[in-house]
Amino acid sequence: LDHRPVQITYECTGLKLSAEATVPVATEPRAAVPLCAQWKLVAYDQGGFGDGPVHLAFDLAGRGIDPRTVTLRDAGSELVPHAWVGETLHALTTIPAGAGRCLFLCSGSDEPPAADLSVTSEALGSGEGSITIENAFYRLTLSEARGGTVTRLVSRATGHDYGAGTFGAGAGLYQLPPNLGVTHGDGRSVVDDLTWQRDGVGRLRILAGESGTPVIVVEARSMEPLEATQRYTFVADMPWFVVESEVDRPWMGTDELVALDVRLDRGDLTKTTPNWVGIVAELDEEHPHFGWRESVDVPPTLTFLQSPVPANAEAWTVGLLEASDLTHVRQGFWPFERMVRGPVRYAEVELVARPAPELAHVRAAIILHAGHHVAGREAFERIAGPPLTTVERLRP
What we know:
The chain is globular. It is mostly beta strands. It has one helix at residues 373-384; strands at 2-12, 15-25, 37-44, 54-59, 70-74, 82-85, 88-93, 100-107, 118-122, 130-134, 138-143, 149-155, 168-175, 191-196, 201-208, 215-224, 228-235, 240-248, 256-265, 271-273, 286-287, 292-295, 301-305, 315-322, 328-334, 342-343, 346-353, 359-369, 388-393. It contains 1 helix and 29 strands.
């Protein structure tokens, strides 16, 4: 990829205007074409992905490609880890910094090499079933007995389990009484009447992928006490996954919907950003809360971290890929029951739609990383701005 200056001329309200801008210009890399190649797929590094593996998603809808008759190879005819989810081809490869990589869909049905992603399941559809996903960075278990939410979320680096009925939805009422601008720190100062997906029973399904494929897609669905659905996309060799969550308004008069409840077992986490929520000096005591805040400013990323530790060993960042329904974000550190005095147990971010629409939707990347919020934001930008791709048909 090269960046070149251009002159842009345009018209606005009858006035002719011009401006200078710098645009990326792609020069297609030269590569040997395998004899069996039917389609040429090129990916260009635009985000400094480095030397590690890169996840690619090629939208091949409407091109008439039968996944059963083709396989993905590189310019040296070596098989590349790949899997189809509908008409989208997912692949794992590397891209030279600032350059491009040519891949080819070739005739054949050879099995691609296994990727570092596994899935196991038990008793699905029984109300007691579970699905466990694992790669080099995390091990995650979804439980039907907790509404299809995540009950185990283990960092492979530290061994800490952050799972706490995580990534479900909620609905109800959460507010300060009229004319009360601050919390006094107990249940008398906050109305907390929310119903949670994690308190019901759900159903789990594996929609795409299996152990060894570069992508696995899982659906979690809850009907009682809330109608809510999460669709997870897990990727091999990546310290992140994507969750898309929807929740229906359960009854007229519902004040708010929590489209996604990111409640973590606190572990060593002491702050959430932005707003730097968390009263570090009180985390060894017992309180009804350990700092919370609600804001109408919904930022693109929110990070759970340790502070003021200079070299933050482990953090979680929530990056919003689709969030048009959200109006508020609520952050807090809580005991086992919110606003009931006790030791600190949870770190939580709630993504809220208020007043409650008929349906609230959010799509977010969940990223496990070292460093502070800046590292999380940079990782999210690479997910939100994946490599540029082109598709060319070589022969019928």
